[in-house]
Amino acid sequence: MAQSAGPPAVAFRGVVKQYGSVRAVDGIDLTIARGESVALLGPNGAGKSTTIGILLGLVPPDEGTVEVFGKRPEQAMRAGHLGAMLQEGKMIPRVTVRELVGFVRQTYRDPLPLAEVLDLAQLTGIAGQRVDRLSGGQAQRVRFALALAGNPDLVVLDEPTAALDVESRRELWAAMQRYAERGNTVLFSTHYLEEADTSADRVVVIAAGKVVADDTPARIKNMIEGRTVSFVPRGAQEGYELLPGVTGVQFHGGRVHLRTTESDRTVHALARADAFDDLEVSGVGLEEAFIALTHGARHRETANAEGQDR
Ligand code: ADP
Question: What residue stretches are annotated with the ABC transporter domain (predicted)?
Answer without folding.
Answer: 10-233
